[in-house]
Amino acid sequence: MPISQYTPEQLRQRLQEEAPVMLLDVREPHEFAYAKIAGSILIPLQQIPQRLEEIPSDRDVVVICHHGMRSQQACNYLEHVGFQRLINLRGGIDAWSLVCDASVPRY
Description:
By secondary structure, the chain is of the alpha/beta class. Helix content is 33%, strand content 18%. The protein has a five-stranded parallel beta sheet. Helix 2 links the parallel strand 2 and strand 3 (41-42). It is globular and about 35 Å long.
């Protein structure tokens, strides 16, 4: 089964609901420092294998990067090691800034 994809609008709607979701940002620290979605947790893509215990398996995890490519890679890896509740943010933080929150800087 393919990994679920959220548009920025779908993520915004989800964040307005009560259901807990983890926002996992897999960009590099300098990118995260420049632009992020409030409440996101940073685990750079290369560090995911060593930091799996920080990622919950009992709730949905929305994975975020710049344009949606690294986050898709992270989803594929996490699915491979047994995670099931994964959602990729299509278009990444750039699409989030364009569609949902213009206060988030684009780069």
